[in-house]
Amino acid sequence: QVQLVESGGGSVHAGGSLTLSCAASGTIPRGWYRQTTGPKRELVALIVGSNSTVYAESVKGRFTISRDRAANTLSLRMNSLKPEDTAVYYCYAQRRTGTGDVDSWGQGTQVNVSS
């Protein structure tokens, strides 16, 4: 059974830091997306292949994604937070099955950054 449990969201002032965590079972956590208003989720950071990373331009140099393969967890360290980082952050996971890749999403964790 696939399960993704996110934690670490909260409220901070601009310039502050937060670390999001995603504990996965039955799948492999691969990245973080965020959503403000509207249905579209924006890529924040993604681990591609064995260890390559992709970041949104808006978070480069401030956010760091990392994965603990043994524990099957994913983290997102967010530094120098800005009010425009306020969003619901979702853990994204993907697992390979006999019929193709299956995507999964966490329940989301709210991040609020005040000016």
Task: Explain the overall architecture.
By secondary structure, the chain is an all-beta fold. It is built from no helices and 11 strands. The protein has strands at residues 3-7, 10-13, 18-25, 28-35, 42-48, 52-55, 63-68, 73-78, 87-97, 100-105, 109-114. Strands 2, 4, 5, 6, 9, 10 and 11 form a 7-stranded mixed beta sheet that branches. A hairpin with a 4-residue loop joins β7 and β8 (73-78). The mean pLDDT is 95.
List the SSEs and their pairings:
Blueprint: E1 3-7, E2 10-13, E3 18-25, E4 28-35, E5 42-48, E6 52-55, E7 63-68, E8 73-78, E9 87-97, E10 100-105, E11 109-114
Parallel strand pairs: 2-11
Antiparallel strand pairs: 1-3, 3-8, 4-5, 4-9, 5-6, 7-8, 9-10, 9-11
